Amino acid sequence: MSLKPTAIDARSGAPADVPKLCYVRKRRHDAPDAWTLEIEFAESVPFSYTPGQFNMLTAFGVGESAISISGPPGQGRLIHTIRDVGPVSHALTRLAPNDPVGVRGPFGVGWPMATAEGQDVVIVAGGLGLAPLRPAIYHILSRREHFGDVWLLYGARRPEDILYRSEIEEWRKKGHIDVNITVDHAGMDWPGHVGVVTGLLSHVNMDVSRTIAMLCGPEVMMRFVAASLTEKGLGVGRIFLSMERNMKCAIGHCGHCQLGPAFICRDGPVFTFERMGPLMSVKEL
Amino acid sequence: MNADKRVITDEQLQKLIDVLIGAGRRVLGPVRGDGVVVYEDIQSVNDFPVGLTDEQTPGGYRLVEAADQSYFGFSVGPHVWKKFLHPSQIELWRARREGENLIIEASGGNNETYAFIGVRACELAAISKQDRVLTGGDYVDTHYQTRRENTLLIAVNCGKAGGCCFCASMGTGPEVRGPFDLALTELSPADEHLFVVEAGSPAGQELLLEIGSRPATEHEIETAKSIVERTALTMGRSMPPDVDVPRLLADNLLHPRWQEVAERCLSCANCTLVCPTCFCTTVEDISDLAGESFARERRWDSCFTMDFSYLHGGGVRNTVASRYRQWMTHKLSTWIEQFGSSGCVGCGRCITWCPVGIDITQEVQAIAGAQTG
């Protein structure tokens, strides 16, 4: 009996349920509970993704988790920023250079990069939510002249939780991105904003007829930010958010990630607020 | 159409089983289990629950003597064909360390061929729905697909409606519609034990040629037709007519009835295990103690478990009310947007096998504001 994958991508015939062998090449401590892994395929394979898509990463013998791709695109290695929150993510963040790691992906629908061209872009990130937005930011930087004004509003718990600090400075200086950062708690040495990320929206001078918003962070944060943006007149179809639910298969077969009629893994994780708003407003849906 | 209706005897039905086994197929059908009708391997028509019928009520199932020696005189039991097509547990892949290397190998692939005998109309509808979910999108469950392609479906028109059946109101039965290879209607066994039979595929036609049959008489065709019509009229339950159920549920996600049903629901997951369309699975990674070999297993899962919606920091659906709402709205409402049809076939298993007898048709009625008697 010949052994075959149990699930395939019907479009390419590629296995969809068997992870590809990869190796961790670099591990960087980004925040007290977050690490960034640079991952390389054991055998060079074509791998392309769009900003906002995710991979399923396997810590062998422990389990598998959905982890957004944190880019930047097109440099040969996969970059994943992972927060240590459970057994699988803990094992992933403990992987050292040259340790094996399994990768399935990329999966899902990412950020509307084409739609956003010619528009102003408001990017709002909360905590680790900056990770799936990072490839979108690099995409914008690579085609900066095709975008209008770009704002990054970023909320972290504490100053030491701020991800990609040195890069953010570059984005601000060289990329002409208007960066505003706030933290929930800070010591006396923090010169910046303190408070929730919605408070930063007052820094954005938004022309609602030509703005696209991209949101990623805790669901409650996204709900409040989306509500504030809507109040300012931005259409619900112009607000995009990256949703999170339990994912096991990433191909719409296991049923876990459903939110109403949506399979977050297959139909998302990026959706318009037009689609998600009514579903997010129902508790425990 | 009438010319296509043939008649076979119980001996020819036995010959059918022999031919299928001779062709190397596992023949699976209803047999008497431990107080219930289950689906297992069969070799003979005597393996069928001959002369038995069942009494089904919300939360109740009892096998009793039937008035005659019918082979198929009962309605659906707790087993579902998905146990063969979409097994409760399979290994997806395994990996082992070899020196510095890690070797990952897929574990899928199966060559077994099957014939299911005694598949009911609602069950055929359920198989079609699982076809859509597992093989109809961009990603294909090849394990399911291979088993499905390697299975002959020999259906039976129901001669008796169960106390919890409501297929007529779901438009899925009791008369079998496709996709079947052969469809039988059991005529009341008198001097001769006869079945009106119809082929639904070239494979079915070939089988009929091999086992022999004779044309059905007008009377036999009429009798077979009236048997199914009677079944439709004596159905134990019905989904409320004149109610747009998908819309009703989508518009009533905050209805107090969810809380009311949660006070009875044990969140035991029985309904999802006996449901012929429920497809959800989870995975578990295992390893040996030395950390030298690993494997991933896939198992049936249920939206009634706490783990199902687990995200870091806790579950999304912590209350029973939210989990029951997820199950019922998925089955009757969101499934339509996802897969183009309702996820319910009206087999009534979730009603019979609910330990507290929660009745999905009554829950819909309650939300619709109709009488719930």
Features:
heterodimer; A: alpha/beta; Elongation Factor Tu (Ef-tu), domain 3; Rossmann fold; seven-stranded mixed β-sheet; six-stranded antiparallel β-sheet; 16 strands; B: alpha+beta; 2 domains; eight-stranded mixed β-sheet; four-stranded antiparallel β-sheet; 17 strands; 24% strand
In angstroms, what separates the terminal alpha carbons of chain A? 43 Å
The helix-strand sequence of chain B is EHEEEEHEEEHEHEHEEHEHHHHEEEEHHH
Largest sheet of chain B: 8 strands, mixed
Total count of strands of chain A? 16
Helicity of chain A, as a percent range: 10-25%
Number of helices of chain B: 13
Folded structure, characterized:
The complex is a heterodimer of chains A (285) and B (373). Chain A has helices spanning 87-93, 113-116, 130-142, 165-173, 219-231, 264-267, 273-280; strands spanning 7-9, 20-31, 34-41, 54-59, 63-68, 78-83, 100-107, 120-126, 150-156, 177-183, 193-194, 211-216, 239-242, 258-259, 262-263, 270-272. Chain A has 285 residues and is of the alpha/beta class. Chain A has two domains: 20-107, Translation factors (Elongation Factor Tu (Ef-tu), domain 3); 113-280, Nucleotide-binding domain of ferredoxin-NADP reductase (FNR) module (Rossmann fold), CATH 3.40.50. Chain A has a seven-stranded mixed sheet with strand order 11-10-9-8-12-13-16, with helices on both faces. A six-stranded antiparallel sheet of chain A has the order 5-4-7-2-3-6. In chain A, strands 14-15 form a two-stranded antiparallel sheet. The radius of gyration of chain A is 19 Å and the shape is globular. The termini of chain A are far apart. With 373 residues, chain B is of the alpha+beta class. Chain B folds into two domains: 2-88 and 109-233, no CATH class; 245-279 and 303-368, no CATH class. An eight-stranded mixed sheet of chain B has the order 3-2-8-10-11-12-1-13. In chain B, strands 7-6-15-14 form a four-stranded antiparallel sheet, with no helix packed on it. Chain B is globular, with a radius of gyration of 22 Å. The model of chain B has no long low-confidence stretch (mean pLDDT 95). Chains A and B meet through β1 of A and β6, β7, β9, β14 and β15 of B. β1 of chain A pairs antiparallel with β9 of chain B, so a sheet runs across the interface.
